[in-house]
Amino acid sequence: xxxxxxxxxxxxxxxxxxxxxxxxxxxxxxxxxxxxxxxxxxxxxxxxxxxxxxxxxxxxxxxxxxxxxxxxxxxxxxxxxxxxxxxxxxxxxxxxxxxxxxxxxxxxxxxxxxxxxxxxxxxxxxxxxxxxxxxxxxxxxxxxxxxxxxxxxxxxxxxxxxxxxxxxxxxxxxxxxxxxxxxxxxxxxxxxxxxxxxxxxxxxxxxxxxxxxxxxxxxxxxxxxxxxxxxxxxxxxxxxxxxxxxxxxxxxxxxxxxxxxxxxxxxxxxxxxxxxxxxxxxxxxxxxxxx
Length: 291
Known about the structure:
Oligomer: single chain
Shape: globular
Distance between the termini: 55 Å
Helix content: 55-70%
Strand content: under 5%
């Protein structure tokens, strides 16, 4: 089974996170930099960040020893970003704003909650996963209606409480979870067909390859849906390019190389990865303000 692997499993969780952070940073440089032929290229590269972050959040939500603490960390950062957005908006004469960057931690938190709920055995609890998804749909709808000017400011759902990517990030979390479960079904089928013990499959690369490939295919399906949605919806209702976001499917190449291991995970990196988001936005603003 080891010789059958198609892609080398060379990336652990640490390197997936590093790639996500790097592509996110490149994306935000593209946001700040003056319009040029490079701007769009930077934004395209930045599309790879979200699926990689989401992929690792799903891994974290399913493998953490204490989901409550895991969700609490995401929740604290989501609250911090929301408060920061409002505070900055209230400072008169300040041109810096992270409102347009959104609150990515809210997407990650809701995605983790959806996955954790679906993973429960009780069907009544599983059904609660519809709530995070509905929240994402409501965020997308509020953004669309506000952007087109159909209803002015939507005060019942203020911008600082909305997800950054509407329902896309939460939907992606769910399909990544489904991909893992379909891989389990495939391995069970292999076990029933070959008679090889399940523990042997668990220790081989076959299961990891199946999970990665199905996650890649799931990402492709969601990206296609996003592309079609962007093609069909009138542009006046969409304040971010859905067709551009569909380029996120390219990040699946890195997912195919994931080996399922956590990798380097010291405390400073865990918390540094959370704090990097607001810190790098501030640094980029200061740099481009001086240029």
